[in-house]
Each structure stands twice: as structure tokens, then as C-alpha cells.
Amino acid sequence: MKLYDKAAQAAEYIRARANINDVTCGVILGTGLSGLREMIEQPIVIAYDDIPYMPSSTVESHAGQLIIGTLHGVRVAAFAGRFHYYEGYSEEEITFGVRVLGLLGAEALFVGSAVGGLQGEQSAGDIALIRDHINLLPINPLRGENDERFGPRFPDMMKSYDELFRQAAHDIAQEENIKLHNAVYVATQGPSLETPAEYQYMNRIGGDVVGMSTVPEVIAARHQGIRVCVLGVISNVCFPLDRLTKTTIEEVLKTVEEAAPKMQLLVSRLIQTTKLFF
Known about the structure:
Elements: H1 3-18, E1 25-28, E2 41-47, E3 65-71, E4 74-80, H2 91-94, H3 96-103, E5 108-117, E6 127-135, H4 163-176, E7 180-187, H5 196-204, E8 209-211, H6 215-223, E9 227-237, H7 249-277
Parallel strand pairs: 1-4, 1-5, 5-9, 6-7, 7-8
Antiparallel strand pairs: 2-3, 3-4, 5-8, 6-9
């Protein structure tokens, strides 16, 4: 069965289960955004295991649930649990939720993640607003036969990170006194953290932050014409190298937890702005 047909079946199941026609926004509740689910009103919670063809999430801190509801009056579909290359998933599995979002009518996708900082002016706990990316993953979700029902064979990626949302994010951050860094995201395989030489390399090729997710979902979303906004919590500082220290997952999660209220405030208000755009 073709990917489009699998995604269409999943979308129809979600419509029936949540008693909805379409959604306006999708949210990937990556690291730093998990608390946003508590802000969703009249939530309908669907386990990934119940959705046709949806992979199961294996990351301990990811719930593996889709939450359908409203936030600031906007219909949202929020994925609590994402899929990473380092877990062994294929590019189709990693981006399946995004494919389903497109068939649910989503016009925007908001993504949260934890990232390592590659610029000297950054500090742990700061927020990065992604403006572009460098894909060092050995996969691309568009590899293989193209299905024109999703999008064109060669989608343009020049403006992958929506300019209107990025401007709105800066305006909101200024109002809320939140420090926000413009950043180029470098995607790596993981799950091992990068070496000092790799951090130096990524800094030299133009990277501002590094992470192990996000880029496949962004590519799939843009293939379908979905507008994208990505925010990351800088969980640890990786450059310059004299600031580099041993990093543990416990330290990363602690930093992200402390910064999470800023991320959730930014994304919730950004979702509210979609009323002006759509």
C-alpha cells in the first residue's frame, strides 16, 4: 500500500474518533513543549497504537499520544511523542504523523526540541528560533517514488521556516522579555553526542545549534505546503570548545524543564496568531 493511502486511512480514523473535519495547526510536542498539552481545551486523546499505520514511540519521556482539541480557539492536533532516526525508524515512519497532518488540513506546524548551542553568545536555557537547517542525516523523507498527491518531486526549500511566524515569535519574545536567538539547525544521527571536532566543524559550516530530529519533519511538511515554525531549548553549550563539559541526559532534561514555560508561552501565542494568517 502506498504511503498516501496509509496516511489517508489514519486521517479518516482520527476524524471519526475525534468527530472533526479538519485541524488548523499541528504541534510536535518535542522536548520543552510537553506541558503544552495541558493547555489544550476539550482534548480528545488517541493512542498512537490505535491509529492505523502509526509507529509506536520508544523514547521514555514521550507519551505516544495524539491530542486533538482547541488552543486559543484554534483547532490543533498535538503529537506527544516523536520518532528519531537513532531509534531505527525509517524516513517514512519518522514523518508519518506530518503526512497525516497534511491530510487533516493542517496549514501550520509548530515543533519543539532540545538543541546544543554552537555559538559563543548562547547560554543553556536560552531559546533558539530556527531560520534554516543543514541536514547531516543520511536520509531524506522524499527519497524514492514521489506521490504528487503530497507535493512536487523537487520542492523548493528556500523559505522552509515561515517568515511571518518568525517575525511574530520575535515580537512575542520582546513583549514577554524572552531572549531569542536566530539559528541554523544542524541535524545529526545520534544517539551519541558529537565530538569536540564535530562541534567545531558544525560551527564552521554555519551551524548555530545541533540536534537529532526536526529536519525530516520539516522537509515532509514543506513538501505538502505546510508552513513551519521551530523553536529549540538550548540544553547545553557545545562551542567554543573551552566551554564544553561532559553532558548527561539528566542535565539536559533539567535545563529543558526549567526553560519549558518560555517555550510553551511562545508556541501557545504563536498558535493564537494563526487566526490572523489563515
